[in-house]
Specification:
heterodimer, A: 202 residues, two-stranded antiparallel ribbon, B: 197 residues, mainly alpha, 8 helices
């Protein structure tokens, strides 16, 4: 476990392999909710929270349940179930305890269950930080950190996109390209500019 | 019989999951680097779609309404696991190429969307054809996108070189090319749709 390793995870998760612009995880929500900045920010924060928490939970499940009992082939089923349950649970807690917060991002929470980014992070963590069914040194910290960083990358892409799309309202866009098609073309140009970060090789 | 054929055809053209419903784009964009990957992903997703549609419409009277989503997810995840293990055993190269996008079929909006919007209300035979149609539509869309990207990005199609001396633009093999192709294709299909009306 070293600082350099954490730095590598940070830069690759946020910039080089940005969840949305390079790995294409969570594209549906990215295109659907990025029309205005405020909902985009709420969604991003909700995603960041869930990716972090699900990284923690799925790590424990994989390390202490699936590996000892030789059940690693149940990875997909167990992860998605736990994530779905967790999201539902968080939604209920927030609705009960802090109604303002629920109004702020409660409606986006159920959407996160089927957000590819959340399950994607969990699977990526397992692929990267477990070798031959054994956890590498510090793999728990790396997993959690990667969960946070993927959330940050999502937030970055979301904020950039919503900022651009808010200004697009004042532009005269060809009819056929309105909404979805234009959003993808903008994302393509953003992805092209993020390509510059590929120069960072460790 | 005619109705069933209609059920099948609507997934291919009128309600094409990729170009009309705009669902399940994450795997579409990520694996469409080459036509072979596109076909592999299309077949895998079609199998999951077909299986989950049949099982869910068989179980529709037993699944309580309030917890239907988790129930659907378990059924879907089971089929995804079957696909994943089969693929690992019989074509490890394809499995490596598709990577994490195989387990991610679970959260593919098309599969859950069809379960929610169609299979939980329809008869088994109808759901079967609906799943088949959607699967074929998805596969065809994947082949179209990956053919464009493979040709423009590497100058090849399925490993062959159709036009000698064509200078490929590598950007189409990169993520940014995928987003550009899907954006322009969606725009193109919008024009076609509006012209018909």
């Amino acid at each position: 476990m070293s600082v350099a390793q954490f730095l590598t995870i940070f830069i690759s998760a946020v910039f080089i392999y940005n969840v949305i612009l390079s790995r294409f995880l969570g594209l549906c929500s990215f295109v659907a909710i990025s029309k205005e900045t405020k909902p985009a920010l709420a969604m991003s924060l909700a995603v960041m929270f869930v990716t972090t928490m699900s990284s923690i939970i799925t790590w424990f499940i994989y390390r202490f349940l699936l590996i000892p009992f030789n059940l690693t082939y149940l990875r997909t089923i167990s992860f998605i179930l736990v994530i779905a349950t967790f999201v539902q649970f968080v939604e209920m807690v927030i609705r009960k305890l802090t109604p303002p917060l629920y109004r702020f991002f409660g409606i986006y929470l159920p959407l996160i269950t089927v957000n590819c980014a959340v399950l994607g992070v969990a699977v990526l963590n397992i692929d990267m930080f477990f070798i031959n069914g054994r956890a590498i040194a510090g793999s728990f910290y790396y997993s959690v950190f990667q969960g946070i960083c993927v959330g940050l990358g999502y937030t970055l892409a979301m904020l950039l996109m919503s900022g651009i799309r808010e200004r697009l309202d004042f532009c005269n866009v060809p009819g056929a390209l309105k909404d979805f098609p234009l959003a993808f073309i903008i994302a393509s140009i953003m992805s092209l500019s993020f390509l510059g970060f590929n120069g960072f090789r460790f | 019989m005619k109705k069933l054929f209609h059920e099948f055809l609507k997934g291919v053209i009128k309600e094409n999951p990729t170009f009309v419903l705009v669902l399940g784009l994450c795997p579409t964009l990520a694996v469409s680097v080459s036509v072979m990957n596109g076909i592999g992903m299309g077949i895998a997703a079609s199998f999951v779609l077909l299986g989950s549609n049949i099982i869910i419409s068989l179980l529709k009277n037993f699944i309580p309404d309030r917890i239907r989503i988790p129930c659907f997810i378990v059924v879907i995840a089971t089929f995804v696991t079957i696909t994943e293990l089969t693929m690992k055993a019989y074509s490890p190269a394809l499995n490596r190429a598709l990577g994490i996008y195989v387990p991610l079929i679970v959260v593919n909006c098309i599969v859950l969307g069809r379960a929610e919007a169609y299979a939980q209300k329809a008869k088994v035979i109808n759901s079967l054809f609906d799943g088949l149609g959607m699967g074929v539509g998805f596969t065809l869309a994947l082949i179209l996108i990956s053919a464009i990207r493979e040709f423009l990005g590497t100058g090849k199609l399925m490993g062959y070189t159709p036009i000698k001396g064509f200078e490929p633009a590598f950007v189409f093999a990169l993520p940014s090319g995928a987003l550009l192709v899907i954006g322009l294709l969606l725009g193109f299909f919008n024009i076609l749709k509006n012209r018909k009306i």
